[in-house]
Amino acid sequence: MTTHDQTFEALCQQLRKAAQLESINSLLNWDERTYMPSQSGEYRAEQIATVTSLTHDCRTDRRIGEWLDALADHPGLAEPASDVATVIRRARRDYDRHVKLPSRLVEELARQSVTGQQVWVEARKANDFAKLAPSLEAIVRLKREQAACWGYADCPYDALLDEYEPDARTRDVAATMEGLRAELVPLVQEVLGRDRGVPRDLLNRHYPQSVQARFGQEMAAALGFDFQRGRLDITHHPFCTEMGPHDCRITTRYDERFFPSAFFGILHEAGHGMYEQGRRPDQYGLPTGQYVSLGIHESQSRLWENQVGRSRAFWTHAFPRAQHAFPDSLGSVPLDDFVLAINDVRPSLIRVEADEATYNLHILVRFELEQALIHDELKVADLPEAWNAKYKQYLDIEPATNAEGVMQDIHWPAALLGYFPTYTLGNLYAAQFFEAMDREFQGIDRLMARGEFAPILEWLRTHVHQHGQAFTPAQLLQRATGQTLSHAALIRHLRGKLLS
Amino acid sequence: MTTHDQTFEALCQQLRKAAQLESINSLLNWDERTYMPSQSGEYRAEQIATVTSLTHDCRTDRRIGEWLDALADHPGLAEPASDVATVIRRARRDYDRHVKLPSRLVEELARQSVTGQQVWVEARKANDFAKLAPSLEAIVRLKREQAACWGYADCPYDALLDEYEPDARTRDVAATMEGLRAELVPLVQEVLGRDRGVPRDLLNRHYPQSVQARFGQEMAAALGFDFQRGRLDITHHPFCTEMGPHDCRITTRYDERFFPSAFFGILHEAGHGMYEQGRRPDQYGLPTGQYVSLGIHESQSRLWENQVGRSRAFWTHAFPRAQHAFPDSLGSVPLDDFVLAINDVRPSLIRVEADEATYNLHILVRFELEQALIHDELKVADLPEAWNAKYKQYLDIEPATNAEGVMQDIHWPAALLGYFPTYTLGNLYAAQFFEAMDREFQGIDRLMARGEFAPILEWLRTHVHQHGQAFTPAQLLQRATGQTLSHAALIRHLRGKLLS
């Protein structure tokens, strides 16, 4: 082996070791939320802290910097999408982001994030924003400092956004979001102006939990989630996690009086899971086998949940099965009523309960406000008022309390600023991917109505999953769809479904 | 703090860290056997290997030796049962046993144990002892070398036994076992000579799995297993594991056509679990909070399974509940018939299916044969013949194949020599503990028949659980019962139950 090869191998081993420790932490976390006995939380926190510390040591090992320096003239770098170049480029990015932060800042952020979340639980319960404000102020200050350490192109928010959506620019995302808003607000008004006669109540009939679990699992498997390499369990907050190249676990929660909650939750998490399962197992732990961004990850969950799962074509195949599973609740319901009901659009206060269309307006509020906080254009003390004003403006609805307003999400108290826009980026990417494959297949509806979902998964495997971090999200989108980021596909999707 | 205090604190931190890593490995193992997706075994093995290696580094850290040297004149050592003395004494013992082994031997043993088990699976399936023999020969050779490294008082087998039953001597155990055999063989013959009219078939009626699970959980909780600090799941091979001071998990397997399998399995594992749950949580990871020996551990499982769970008094309380749970199978069965059926005695070939009385004869065969192997008085090639001869002699039964004879257990291929006698030690201790508390309570039957099990658990907490490793098993037994190890209590227990 050449010296380059040996150095590259050493780098890969180190990255794989860090990923392995993270995978062990994933199990500790998953178990805590699924099966751990109730009294064991304290010790579990200590176990997680130990593994987190081992991982951090592994990721900040100075030898990584030395290996990367020695690899700076690796001939493989000439082909940026090659495995070698992908590993070196992303390892350099990640390592630099680690070492640019003074350990004092890392520790303060970790501490503020933990106490922020604790205070948030109390403050939200007491509907007392003033109680939360000092934590948020500290977090905004620390996140600004973090942005300064990392550096940025145009504005500090760029540095934070880049953490979750590498290479995205605030300016570009803001422009697309603004375009989306300009069309979405009147579109929602138009939908609300029509009397669509949505038979909402049929979703509130009785759907037994065990039948929901069986039906959800059957449908997730039909779409392509591999239960030999994954599983489905119950948690209070649904999530998707992986703890190895062949071990991806999703969770959901069941409401026997609201069918969509668990079912679309399962499709959503299974969408995340199929992205995990679709990457190259032999590259596990390396940038070549890692997801590229949170926005792309979210596009996978949203595409299966919304473009597929809420389509008339999907239910043409699935509804007879649903009727068979829930004869009392759905036996005599016409398909069209069911499809109308699962596509109900109504402005609401709580993001996680929002419908497919208005959801993005919730994100827009947060995206604009967190930029203003980071860029010192808005004080934390003025946040509730600004929040309520934007909800009035975009959704024509106002929270009666801060608990159901500015304090509804855990993200800011957890120091996750720059994260929210990736939800809408996911919706935008999903619409663009789905249009591109629809063109390629000359109509996916035809396939879905026959229960043929393999071509959809195959398209995503080919154009998204297998690439790991070989391309930026923007490059991936360009290669897969021929387009740059745009709101047009999502608007077409919503208009076609809700107003045609 | 004095220097002694600081050094002691450093030692404790190191031991706690090692235990924490082991607890993480327990979760990785438990998950592998309960919920892990089928295709993830390979990566799981790598995760376990990584944590095992981290644990080994932690336990063999040279600083432990330095700290122990510095603590050699700690004034607390004057009181051997004090926390300080217990920690120092047992840490010294464990550290010495680690460092006395050359790493070449440790690695070879680990490798031979893994391949031994793999070969065993194949050889047993093919009923081909010759295939397994080379692995066993290598293992016997390595175990002899291990015994030589560790050192011993009378014979090499002492060193191996000491690993599982600290401070026990082969000579003493053999003498007790011989006394047991001399009374047990005729006792079994006497039982077989009577026509007890055991209505065995009633245990083969239909016992639905979900009802078994509910009933088993209810009874385990009634005996004192704390489900807020533990849980019960399904695995192919039942076991008990702990992954924290408040997280002890037991498993069982269900046979809908054989009631005792899961039920007594649950009581057995819950007995192990109550020992875990009864130790001092604040001493978790230290010798003061650790189980003292495998024999004592087994005594806890056996006492709940046999002395309690197979007693007429227990079923006086539990049988109406069982009849309610399984009305079709037990509704019209008299209590006495049921108690007779669960106490059926029959010589059989397979240890893990043996009844309470003949079980110890299975152990005796193994105990004598593994001594002979280690002491070079028996060649591996002659093992099958010697095995069959002893089964004929002690149980008056002979295996037709080596698969159901000498190859039935995984212990020897897994390099666990010195382990088997702890099963019978457990039965002996259990009988002695139970007699002592029976005397103290002036009849436990009275309590059990009323469903009062708390005094039993309390007695075990007081006399066994809370002491961790403060005493040797022999000291613990002496303090709790006033006796040395003896077969008399077990014989009295069996005679009272089977022949009165």
Chain-wise SSE layout:
Two copies of one chain form a homodimer.
Chain A: H1 3-34, H2 41-59, H3 62-70, H4 83-99, H5 103-125, H6 129-150, H7 156-164, H8 170-193, H9 209-223, E1 230-234, E2 240-242, E3 248-252, H10 259-278, H11 294-308, H12 312-325, H13 327-330, H14 335-342, H15 359-374, H16 383-395, H17 421-440, H18 444-449, H19 454-463, H20 473-481, H21 488-498
Structure description:
- The structure is a homodimer of 500-residue chains.
- Chain A has 500 residues and is an all-alpha fold.
- The first copy, chain A, folds into two domains: 1-99, Methane Monooxygenase Hydroxylase, Chain G, domain 1, CATH 1.20.58; 108-500, Orthogonal Bundle (Neurolysin, domain 3), CATH 1.10.1370.30.
- In chain A, 63% of the residues lie in helices and 3% in strands.
- A three-stranded mixed sheet of chain A has the order 1-3-2, with helices on both faces.
- Chain A is globular and about 70 Å long.
- Chain A starts with a helix and ends with a helix.
- In chain A, 44% of the residues are buried.
CATH architecture of the largest domain in chain A: Orthogonal Bundle
| Main sheet attributes: strand count, strand direction, barrel closure of chain A | 3 strands, mixed
What is the mean pLDDT of chain A?
A: 96
- CATH class of the largest domain in chain A reads Mainly Alpha
Q: Characterize the quaternary organization of these chains.
A: homodimer
Taken as a percent bin, the fraction of beta residues of chain A is: under 5%
Largest contact between protein chains? A-B, 36 and 36 residues
